[in-house]
Amino acid sequence: MSSSELRAKAVRRRLLAGLAAAAIALPGCTVRPLYSSAPLATSGLPAAVDLSSIAVKPALTRYGQEVRNHLIFLLSGGKGEPAEPLYSLDLTVSVVQESAATIQVATENQPTAATVTVIGSFTLTNMQGETIGQGSQRIMSSYDVPQQEFAALRARRDAENRAARELAELLRLVIAQELAKTWKAKEPDKPSAKADAKAG
Predict the structure, then answer these.
(1) Within-domain flag for 56
(2) What does the DSSP 8-state code read for residue 79?
(3) Are 147 and 108 in contact (CB under 8 A)?
(4) C-alpha separations of 122 from 8, 64, 85 in Å
(5) Handedness of CA 61, 63, 66, 70 (dihedral sign)
(6) Is the Cβ–Cβ distance between 143 and 156 less than 8 Å?
């Protein structure tokens, strides 16, 4: 047998070994797109922890309502609030404004810079009142502040709206992680190989 045939056989063996290893590892994969709209149940979790089963309590401020609206849309996939929720989310949103820089204004309408930080604190509970998870996240958004008062107010509102959208996306991810952790903690332990051997 020639050396080229031996090399070809070795390459085929390695290829088959690689395919076998991939076939063994593939069923254990739990990769999920970060911003997937599919329910968590498709990732091996039950429908009970589906994000669309979360009801978000009303907000008291304009920017709080912005975060709430975006979050409801993300949790439900655009379907709105659940008719029979399994979880309740208490969301508190606050805003901090800071001057990022001060520019000497020589001419009219020359802008200065500012930063808005939108902070969202949440507590997730089930219908029995047990706390599932809680935490706080923040998003910063910078904007130019012109001299004209209405334009400055509009610029700040636009910055708050941008930060609200990003904060809602971040909160969705954190809440999904909290629900996944809770389910894994309640999952029954699988019997070990030693226990199976003893039983046999």
Answers:
(1) yes
(2) S
(3) yes
(4) 60, 12, 17
(5) negative
(6) yes
Find which of 28-37, 68-77, 174-183 is predicted with most confidence, using mean pLDDT.
68-77
**pLDDT at res. 51:** 86
Q: Which two tokens stand for residue 85?
A: 């929720």
C-alpha span between 48 and 50 (Å, rounded): 6
Give the global pTM: 0.65
Residue 47 in this model has a pLDDT that exceeds 80 = no
Task: Assess whether pLDDT exceeds 60 at residue 197.
Answer: no
Note the pLDDT of residue 8.
66
β-pair type (112-126, 131-145): antiparallel
Q: What is the pLDDT of residue 43?
A: 46
Domain span including residue 147: 34-101+111-179
- 82 belongs to a structural domain: yes
DSSP 11-75: HHHHHHHHHHHHHHHGGG-----TT--S-GGGGT--GGG-GGGEEEPPPSSHHHHHHHHHHHHHH
Is 10 inside a domain boundary?
Answer: no
